[in-house]
Amino acid sequence: MKRLVIAVVGVALVMSVVTGVGRPRLDGTVAEPAQAQSDITAESVGAHIAQIEGARHALGTQAERTKLGEVAGYVHTQLDALGLSVQEDPVTYSGATFPNVIGTLQGTVCPGVSFVVGAHYDSVGGTPGADDNASGVAAMLEIARLLSVQSFQPSIQFVSFSFEEDGLIGSRQMAVEAGAAGRDIAGVLVLDMIGYTCDEPGCQTYPPGVSGPDVGNFISVVGNTASAPLLQTFTEASASAVPALPVSPLEVPGNGGSTTRGSDHAPFWDQGYAALLVIETVYLRNPNYHHPSDTLSTLDLSFAADVANATLAALVAAATADHDNDGRVDACGPGPAPPVGGIAEPPDLATRAGAGMGGGTYAVLGAVGGVLAFAVLGTLAAKRRGVQQ
pLDDT tens across 65-102, in order? Predict the structure, then answer.
């Protein structure tokens, strides 16, 4: 995984309670359509992580390569069972081949326009990679579960990238091919390490000269200049749908520097696409980063579910935005308005994602910290450098 130094960026801290949430099956299978209406929960995220956890590296031992192939198959099976169109795009690096696994929910009005939700499925050799990055894959699968029973005017693709830990190889292949083909990708949301929190004073650290909250309970969302509108959408949608989740947004100039390019969002920046990285502060918070101790038992699954629900809300908001109220969503560009009912997704889906589709409710108990100012200063380095903390 990447190295990241992030300080916190503009967040009002609030507390919440979740009640009455539905509980999907824990055996790793896909929920039936009736269950697919329940919230993304700690249980549903944890069920996927339990299936994915385990050392899985393309250039590692035979056991690690076998596990990586099994995880690719697991993602394929999950997406296929949701009724999505699933393809495996082979990616070859250093003599090894593992696919990007892509599930597509076809758009109803402008299927050639797409949004992408992505997460890499490999880990560093010798590490079970529960946080890095089974947590991101689990969130992606859960978002796919909820959205697969809806319809959208643009297409939505759910992607598990290969070879992230070897230099963003899988995401770079997809981004470069999309750019060369002139594909219209309206936005990319990359989930990478979203499951670790800490609440002991001093557990959240910072680089020299940077200060911020001393507990690690926030999620960072990083975008470049071209991604600013998408970043704003994420921040606003999250605040509405999951008010309990502190979100730290950061806009970096241009295509970012080496310190903010260490995950699968960066190749999309390079091709001119709007892309966001949803991530913790890596080793500044999680002592298990790139270590054998990166296990499911160390994760805050309620936090991971909140991040997944926030990302779901942002995706729905971006994919359904229709600022001129002509019935044709903004992402589709100019053209004839669709028939009445062309936007088939429930207009309150984003809010329900955070409020509990299965009867759960978020009760905001009050602000506890006010608005905090942050600055991302740090070192998000590509994993091909092999640096561990």
Answer: 999 999 999 999 999 999 999 999 999 999 999 999 99
Instruction: Report the candidate in 117, 156, 149 with the shortest Cα–Cα distance to residue 136.
Output: 117
Architecture in CATH of 11-384: 3-Layer(aba) Sandwich (3.40)
Residue 207 has which token pair? 């680089």
- pTM for the model: 0.83
- Contacts with 66 (C-beta within 8 Å, 6 or more apart), sequence order: none
User: Looking at the predicted structure, is the pLDDT value of residue 374 above 90?
Assistant: no
Any residues with CB less than 8 A from the CB of 67 and at least 6 apart, and which? 54, 55, 56
pLDDT in tens, 112-135: 999 999 999 999 999 999 999 999
The Cα–Cα gap between 2 and 384 comes to 9
Q: What is the rounded distance in angstroms from the CA atom of residue 257 to the CA atom of residue 381?
A: 10
The whole-angstrom distance between residue 203's C-alpha and the CA centroid of its chain comes to 24
Q: How far apart are the first and last CA of the chain?
A: 11
Return the bridge partners of 36, or none. none
Q: Are 142 and 101 in contact (CB under 8 A)?
A: no
Q: HSE on the CB side for 344, CA within 13 Å?
A: 14
- At 78 the three-state DSSP class reads helix
> Which has more confidence, 375 or 282?
282
